[in-house]
């Protein structure tokens, strides 16, 4: 008795197999239906047991969309599996959370760019004003910018403005 039950359990997955001929004439086996567009005469075997994910047909579906899903799943053996409502809700929630994270990251980047833009414009105003600009070198000594260094800093500030001030 135990052996018969064990053999029946082992045979169940094999029973839920699709068998069809592909376009090149080779026989294919899968637990998923053949690709759409496969002619009915090329489908050699369909699973004989009803899928677990398929809901039972009710007399009054909750909405018109669910009624269409029930009718389409009942009428076509090649129809895709219906999505679990809880799984769909979790997927939508995860997508919404990802959208919020993406928006927050975009806002952070925009704030950094705006700060960089303001700093670059202030630096350019300082360089264009003609006042002597000094900076501290590696030894901690103060040194003033010569004309070439001032021109390089001006070019650098203009590049930063072009990149961050849009």
Label this structure with key terms.
single chain, three-stranded antiparallel beta sheet, two-stranded antiparallel sheet, 4 helices, 10% strand
Q: How would you describe this protein?
A:
This protein is mainly α. It is 54% helix and 10% strand. It is built from four helices and five strands. It has a three-stranded antiparallel sheet with strand order 2-1-3, with no helix packed on it. It has a two-stranded antiparallel sheet with strand order 4-5. A hairpin with a 5-residue loop joins strand 1 and strand 2. The longest helix is centred in the middle third of the chain and has 45 residues. The radius of gyration is 34 Å and the shape is rod-shaped.
Q: Compute the average pLDDT.
A: 79
User: What is the end-to-end distance?
Assistant: 78 Å
Q: Report Rg.
A: 34 Å
- Please tell me what the overall shape is: rod-shaped
Helix percentage range: 40-55%
**Strand order of the biggest β-sheet:** 2-1-3
Low-confidence stretches: 55-74
H/E order of the elements?
A: HEEEHHEEH
Characterize the biggest β-sheet: 3 strands, antiparallel
Proportion in β-strands = 5-15%
Please tally the β strands and state the result: 5
Number of domains: 2
Secondary-structure-derived class: mainly alpha
Count, helices: 4
